Amino acid sequence: IAKEVAKLLEMKAQLGGDEGKHKFVLKTPKGTRDYSPKQMAIRERVFNAIITCFKRHGAEVIDTPVFELKETLTGKYGEDSKLIYDLKDQGGELLSLRYDLTVPFARYLAMNKITNIKRYHIAKVYRRDNPAMTRGRYREFYQCDFDIAGQFDPMIPDAECLKIVHEILSDLQLGDFLIKVNDRRILDGMFAVCGVPDSKFRTICSSVDKLDKVRAGALGCNCRCWSFSESLSLWAALTMVRENWLENADKHRVVLVPPFLWRGGTQGTAISFDLSLARGLDYYTGVIFEAVLLQQENDHVEEPVSVGSVAGGGRYDGLVGMFDPKGRKVPCVGVSIGIERIFSILEQRVEASEEKIRTTETQVLVASAQKKLLEERLKLISELWDAGIKAEVLYKKNPKLLNQLQYCEDTGIPLVAIVGEQELKDGVVKLRVVATREEVNVRRESLVEEIRMQTNRP
Amino acid sequence: IAKEVAKLLEMKAQLGGDEGKHKFVLKTPKGTRDYSPKQMAIRERVFNAIITCFKRHGAEVIDTPVFELKETLTGKYGEDSKLIYDLKDQGGELLSLRYDLTVPFARYLAMNKITNIKRYHIAKVYRRDNPAMTRGRYREFYQCDFDIAGQFDPMIPDAECLKIVHEILSDLQLGDFLIKVNDRRILDGMFAVCGVPDSKFRTICSSVDKLDKVRAGALGCNCRCWSFSESLSLWAALTMVRENWLENADKHRVVLVPPFLWRGGTQGTAISFDLSLARGLDYYTGVIFEAVLLQQENDHVEEPVSVGSVAGGGRYDGLVGMFDPKGRKVPCVGVSIGIERIFSILEQRVEASEEKIRTTETQVLVASAQKKLLEERLKLISELWDAGIKAEVLYKKNPKLLNQLQYCEDTGIPLVAIVGEQELKDGVVKLRVVATREEVNVRRESLVEEIRMQTNRP
Fold first, then answer.
1. Which of B59, B69, B261 minimises the CB distance to A360?
2. Chain A partners within 8 Å of B62 (Cβ)
3. φ, ψ at B61 (rounded to 5°)
4. Do the domain assignments include residue B4?
5. ipTM value > 0.85
6. pTM, rounded to two decimals
7. Does residue A257 lie in a domain region?
């Protein structure tokens, strides 16, 4: 009976779908967007810069499913857990969409008993946040994560993460940036001296992280933390640091900024120690950092909420142990590049510069000037494809030459290979350079080589 | 109050998570898997072959969100709709995970009023099916789609889709394959003559599509269709085709296999017209096709269910119109490469061949033979990174040279750059070729160039 009911409901849904098909709103879900070919071209540039950097640092790559068992995510994100997307219970396991790439990474390490890896992972994550899409904040967004897991000498991998942020932001030429650095152990020391109970450390961290938002939104519930932070003097902070933390200096050596971070090309850039940096996530246990852009493209727009944060990360030595059946720890440190914000900036820049971005790589259009040459065009393009040449043909039986040339102008195709009855008889193809309108007859057997030479893509 | 309750529930969930953290099953959700670095290396090879082909044919690329409004997917997949993953109603819009890339593509076209595009899209899709993961069937799996949308002369874009399947399967060297081709209009003609009411056409198609499964599984409920199909003689079929379809031959010209598909290199390959091919999806309206591998890697394993289907597609002229407020149609034809099956085959092949796959591209390890040279190693590697050299360093203050050399052997790093006190004094670096154990002193300012030359990666 249940099966029959389901079938009827399904039919009803289908009928409903048909009846209402012209009524529903034609849109993507709230906080999400499509990428057009032009946006994809910009996105691939950014990805290339980031992946090149990750590979330069010897990272492997992994991938994990878009959803995890709900319990895998439970208890990892503190009060932000309310932003997790759950899947409907359709029988079977309870699932949630991944909230970041760090928890799936820790689950992966524990599950496969890996104690030593340097990996990157680029994928979409999901947060039921209130999106501000014009500022590059979405509910579905990419994270580009680089993490180093393993028991190593202090601060060497941590410093490499900072170096990576520095390299990527420099490569992308986003203007001046500042990398703020702090340490959860310092914050914990401060909280302890202030009399905050241990159990509240993470909540307070999360609140400190939202200070900017509090200032902007004047949310009553968080004001206590805000004034707590305001009243905290540097003297108090430093005392606490000394008492609670630096006594273990040998164990937790502060080599936050090793010499190699300061070599060349750091004009206009700075790494600064910032006691107000807290980071929202629960799982950090040591160094934390965040990169912000200093010069915004839209300086005239008031943007009080986390202006220009484009990367963040830190050390999380306890997370893998939460998954391991015996609680074995694997120390980890990592960085996440938040590229939606970077996309937005580069998109605006392309928009402003009127730079013409090609969305295909086609080298040659196979065209004809006369009618009834469809089969000859298809035969030629097939030869070109088989030789690895990027080629297109208009899907018309008898296209006009003018339309074919116009198509090249519109899409940036640099060459046209024209077949005609005379050319077929002579065993040649007329090769036209779109930009200069030069035409030259090329022997058919030399055509592939000639196209390669002209487009310089062997 | 609701907010407080939510907060308490959240706290309870967290406590539960902490208590039970060593009890829960450490796994990925049913029907999903992680990709290890080695699997990713194979996956990237396959993607490269596919993307290269799509670009060779002049396709642009787009991306869409992983979930759509539930109503966007409603009424598009017939009885398979029950396999759609719904998200939990957490307030706001009702959402579902995408089931394929075709419906989101149609939604994208209608939403942006695009009437003419050739695009590819590579992304994961989701089906609550019963997975058979050993055979490369998952609940989360990649599709690689290539589609041509627009009003064109008959069969030219359709034939290009077949050409693409042919090129990709040839490139990947998966062995002999067969591309089966049919046309929904022929099937509809047959159903009409058999007295099947119009409203049942799609259901019957779906049943015909499952014939193989029926044969294997002997599912009682589908047996009617099975015998229906068996009893259908070729004569009846051809009569129906003539009567219902070929009278419009000029409009719907059958150029299923244009000459260019038959040029060179088709030994062991065939494109065959197959009346039993139906395809499961509701939205096809013309040509349909499916590629199957003929020689399985595991010939000894009995695999009666859809053996080796690795690509499929067809024409769907009505789908975009279902989204357009005015019902305007955009004719489309496309192909989807199902690469999970291909991954499985290539993984098995790599396994069997004991081919050593590198999972990083690191060119050089920066090492030292003496103690207290951490800062010098970091300084040198920083120079190399800034020059674009892919380099690694062990995260130890004083690693042993033997361990550093062993690391290169294990990971396939071809070169070691060794700094020592004497080398620092002399302004040189000792460059060691791991394979030959040859060592040569290189002046520090020539090191980058020397590494580039030796690894042949400018």
1. B59
2. 34-37, 40
3. -130, 145
4. no
5. no
6. 0.84
7. yes
